[in-house]
Automatic annotation (TrEMBL):
Pathway: Cofactor biosynthesis; riboflavin biosynthesis; riboflavin from 2-hydroxy-3-oxobutyl phosphate and 5-amino-6-(D-ribitylamino)uracil: step 1/2. The active site is at H97. This is 6,7-dimethyl-8-ribityllumazine synthase. Belongs to the DMRL synthase family. CDD domains: Lumazine_synthase-I (cd09209). It comes from Flavobacterium sandaracinum. One of its GO terms (biological process) is riboflavin biosynthetic process. Gene3D superfamilies: Lumazine/riboflavin synthase.
Amino acid sequence: MATVNKNLSDYDKNSVPNAKDFRFGIVVAEWNDTITEGLFKGAIDALLENQVPAQHIIRWNVPGSFELIYGSKKMLQTQNVDAVIAIGCVIQGQTKHFDFVCEGVTQGIKDLNVQTDIPVIFCVLTDNTMQQSIDRSGGIHGNKGTEAAIAAIKMAYIRQQASLSHQIDNQHLLSSGAIQIEEGKPLELKE
Ligand SMILES: Nc1c(NC[C@H](O)[C@H](O)[C@H](O)CO)[nH]c(=O)[nH]c1=O
Ligand SMILES: CC(=O)[C@@H](O)COP(=O)(O)O
Protein backbone atom coordinates (compact mmCIF):
# COMPACT_ATOMS: atom_id res chain seq x y z
CA MET A 1 0.00 0.00 0.00
CA ALA A 2 1.47 3.34 -1.00
CA THR A 3 1.52 6.32 1.32
CA VAL A 4 -1.04 8.04 -0.89
CA ASN A 5 -3.52 5.39 0.23
CA LYS A 6 -2.62 5.43 3.95
CA ASN A 7 -2.34 8.56 6.08
CA LEU A 8 0.93 8.31 7.99
CA SER A 9 -0.61 9.91 11.09
CA ASP A 10 -3.43 7.40 11.42
CA TYR A 11 -3.04 4.68 14.04
CA ASP A 12 -5.21 2.55 16.29
CA LYS A 13 -4.70 3.99 19.76
CA ASN A 14 -5.95 0.73 21.29
CA SER A 15 -3.04 -1.12 19.67
CA VAL A 16 -0.38 1.02 21.34
CA PRO A 17 1.04 -0.13 24.70
CA ASN A 18 1.26 2.41 27.53
CA ALA A 19 4.70 3.96 27.07
CA LYS A 20 5.01 5.84 30.38
CA ASP A 21 8.05 3.83 31.50
CA PHE A 22 9.91 3.81 28.17
CA ARG A 23 12.77 6.17 27.28
CA PHE A 24 13.42 7.33 23.72
CA GLY A 25 16.37 8.80 21.84
CA ILE A 26 15.67 10.89 18.76
CA VAL A 27 18.48 11.70 16.32
CA VAL A 28 17.60 14.46 13.85
CA ALA A 29 19.45 15.31 10.61
CA GLU A 30 19.91 19.04 9.94
CA TRP A 31 19.75 18.69 6.14
CA ASN A 32 16.27 19.85 4.96
CA ASP A 33 15.61 21.01 8.51
CA THR A 34 12.20 22.52 7.68
CA ILE A 35 11.13 18.95 6.93
CA THR A 36 13.03 17.18 9.72
CA GLU A 37 11.68 19.62 12.30
CA GLY A 38 8.17 18.75 11.11
CA LEU A 39 8.94 15.05 11.42
CA PHE A 40 10.36 15.65 14.91
CA LYS A 41 7.17 17.48 15.97
CA GLY A 42 5.05 14.59 14.73
CA ALA A 43 7.17 12.15 16.70
CA ILE A 44 7.22 14.19 19.91
CA ASP A 45 3.46 14.81 19.81
CA ALA A 46 2.77 11.09 19.38
CA LEU A 47 5.13 10.10 22.21
CA LEU A 48 3.58 12.63 24.60
CA GLU A 49 0.08 11.57 23.53
CA ASN A 50 0.98 8.02 24.59
CA GLN A 51 2.07 8.99 28.10
CA VAL A 52 5.82 9.28 27.49
CA PRO A 53 7.12 11.91 29.97
CA ALA A 54 9.02 14.72 28.24
CA GLN A 55 12.02 14.00 30.48
CA HIS A 56 12.16 10.48 29.02
CA ILE A 57 13.04 11.86 25.57
CA ILE A 58 16.56 12.87 24.51
CA ARG A 59 17.33 14.61 21.20
CA TRP A 60 20.63 14.86 19.33
CA ASN A 61 21.21 16.65 16.00
CA VAL A 62 23.54 15.37 13.26
CA PRO A 63 24.58 17.14 10.02
CA GLY A 64 22.85 14.88 7.50
CA SER A 65 21.01 11.59 7.09
CA PHE A 66 24.22 9.66 6.53
CA GLU A 67 25.30 10.68 10.06
CA LEU A 68 22.12 9.22 11.51
CA ILE A 69 23.94 5.89 11.58
CA TYR A 70 26.77 7.01 13.85
CA GLY A 71 24.51 9.30 15.90
CA SER A 72 22.02 6.48 16.54
CA LYS A 73 24.83 4.07 17.42
CA LYS A 74 26.32 6.45 20.01
CA MET A 75 22.85 7.27 21.34
CA LEU A 76 22.04 3.64 22.09
CA GLN A 77 25.54 2.91 23.37
CA THR A 78 25.69 5.81 25.84
CA GLN A 79 22.12 6.72 26.76
CA ASN A 80 19.55 4.73 28.73
CA VAL A 81 16.95 4.39 25.98
CA ASP A 82 14.49 1.66 24.97
CA ALA A 83 14.37 2.71 21.30
CA VAL A 84 15.95 5.27 18.96
CA ILE A 85 14.14 7.19 16.23
CA ALA A 86 16.39 8.31 13.35
CA ILE A 87 14.86 11.30 11.53
CA GLY A 88 16.08 12.51 8.13
CA CYS A 89 14.94 13.79 4.75
CA VAL A 90 16.84 12.93 1.58
CA ILE A 91 15.67 14.66 -1.61
CA GLN A 92 16.82 13.74 -5.11
CA GLY A 93 19.28 16.26 -6.59
CA GLN A 94 21.05 16.35 -9.92
CA THR A 95 23.45 13.46 -9.26
CA LYS A 96 23.52 9.89 -8.01
CA HIS A 97 24.47 11.09 -4.50
CA PHE A 98 20.83 10.61 -3.47
CA ASP A 99 21.08 6.89 -4.23
CA PHE A 100 24.23 6.41 -2.17
CA VAL A 101 22.97 8.40 0.83
CA CYS A 102 19.64 6.56 0.85
CA GLU A 103 21.24 3.14 0.46
CA GLY A 104 23.89 3.94 3.02
CA VAL A 105 21.55 5.15 5.74
CA THR A 106 19.13 2.32 5.06
CA GLN A 107 21.80 -0.35 5.36
CA GLY A 108 23.41 1.38 8.33
CA ILE A 109 20.23 1.54 10.35
CA LYS A 110 19.38 -2.03 9.36
CA ASP A 111 22.80 -3.07 10.66
CA LEU A 112 22.18 -1.35 14.00
CA ASN A 113 18.93 -3.32 14.37
CA VAL A 114 20.79 -6.55 13.64
CA GLN A 115 23.90 -5.90 15.71
CA THR A 116 22.45 -4.20 18.82
CA ASP A 117 19.61 -4.90 21.24
CA ILE A 118 17.95 -1.49 20.91
CA PRO A 119 15.42 -0.98 18.10
CA VAL A 120 16.31 1.89 15.74
CA ILE A 121 13.32 3.24 13.82
CA PHE A 122 13.83 4.37 10.21
CA CYS A 123 12.15 7.77 9.96
CA VAL A 124 13.96 8.89 6.83
CA LEU A 125 12.06 10.40 3.90
CA THR A 126 13.62 9.52 0.54
CA ASP A 127 11.69 11.73 -1.86
CA ASN A 128 11.92 12.93 -5.41
CA THR A 129 10.76 16.44 -4.59
CA MET A 130 10.44 18.84 -1.68
CA GLN A 131 6.67 18.76 -2.12
CA GLN A 132 6.63 15.02 -1.50
CA SER A 133 8.55 15.65 1.73
CA ILE A 134 6.17 18.43 2.77
CA ASP A 135 3.22 16.12 2.14
CA ARG A 136 4.73 13.43 4.41
CA SER A 137 5.92 15.61 7.33
CA GLY A 138 2.57 17.00 8.45
CA GLY A 139 0.97 17.62 5.06
CA ILE A 140 -1.77 15.89 3.12
CA HIS A 141 -0.32 12.41 3.65
CA GLY A 142 0.19 12.85 7.38
CA ASN A 143 3.43 12.76 9.34
CA LYS A 144 6.04 9.99 9.12
CA GLY A 145 7.30 11.17 12.50
CA THR A 146 4.01 10.08 14.04
CA GLU A 147 4.31 6.69 12.36
CA ALA A 148 7.90 6.34 13.61
CA ALA A 149 6.99 7.22 17.21
CA ILE A 150 4.26 4.58 17.30
CA ALA A 151 6.64 2.04 15.80
CA ALA A 152 9.22 2.97 18.46
CA ILE A 153 6.72 2.38 21.29
CA LYS A 154 5.64 -0.96 19.85
CA MET A 155 9.23 -2.15 19.32
CA ALA A 156 10.27 -1.04 22.82
CA TYR A 157 7.35 -3.09 24.16
CA ILE A 158 8.34 -6.14 22.11
CA ARG A 159 11.92 -5.83 23.43
CA GLN A 160 10.62 -5.59 27.01
CA GLN A 161 8.28 -8.58 26.64
CA ALA A 162 10.97 -10.68 24.96
CA SER A 163 13.29 -9.99 27.89
CA LEU A 164 10.61 -10.90 30.45
CA SER A 165 9.67 -14.13 28.66
CA HIS A 166 13.36 -15.10 28.53
CA GLN A 167 13.62 -14.56 32.27
CA ILE A 168 10.47 -16.64 32.85
CA ASP A 169 11.86 -19.44 30.70
CA ASN A 170 15.06 -19.42 32.72
CA GLN A 171 13.17 -19.47 36.00
CA HIS A 172 11.05 -22.34 34.72
CA LEU A 173 14.11 -24.35 33.75
CA LEU A 174 15.87 -23.71 37.05
CA SER A 175 12.79 -24.57 39.11
CA SER A 176 12.39 -27.82 37.17
CA GLY A 177 15.85 -29.05 38.20
CA ALA A 178 18.14 -27.47 35.61
CA ILE A 179 21.41 -26.16 36.97
CA GLN A 180 22.95 -22.74 36.47
CA ILE A 181 26.48 -23.25 35.15
CA GLU A 182 28.74 -20.50 36.42
CA GLU A 183 32.03 -19.80 34.63
CA GLY A 184 35.09 -20.91 36.60
CA LYS A 185 33.02 -22.77 39.20
CA PRO A 186 33.35 -26.58 39.33
CA LEU A 187 30.19 -28.37 38.27
CA GLU A 188 28.54 -29.98 41.31
CA LEU A 189 26.65 -33.01 40.10
CA LYS A 190 23.50 -33.71 42.10
CA GLU A 191 23.21 -37.18 43.67
N1 LIG B 1 21.58 15.67 0.06
C1 LIG B 1 21.18 15.33 1.34
C2 LIG B 1 22.10 14.96 2.33
N2 LIG B 1 23.43 14.92 2.06
C3 LIG B 1 24.43 14.95 3.09
C4 LIG B 1 24.74 13.56 3.66
O1 LIG B 1 23.67 13.04 4.43
C5 LIG B 1 25.96 13.66 4.59
O2 LIG B 1 25.67 14.56 5.64
C6 LIG B 1 27.18 14.14 3.85
O3 LIG B 1 27.40 13.32 2.73
C7 LIG B 1 28.43 14.14 4.76
O4 LIG B 1 28.68 12.84 5.22
N3 LIG B 1 21.67 14.62 3.56
C8 LIG B 1 20.33 14.62 3.86
O5 LIG B 1 19.95 14.30 5.00
N4 LIG B 1 19.43 14.97 2.90
C9 LIG B 1 19.81 15.32 1.65
O6 LIG B 1 18.94 15.62 0.78
C1 LIG C 1 20.83 13.51 -1.62
C2 LIG C 1 21.86 14.52 -1.99
O1 LIG C 1 22.99 14.49 -1.54
C3 LIG C 1 21.49 15.49 -3.06
O2 LIG C 1 20.34 16.19 -2.64
C4 LIG C 1 22.63 16.45 -3.34
O3 LIG C 1 22.24 17.13 -4.52
P1 LIG C 1 23.10 16.89 -5.88
O4 LIG C 1 22.87 15.43 -6.29
O5 LIG C 1 22.51 17.85 -6.87
O6 LIG C 1 24.55 17.17 -5.57
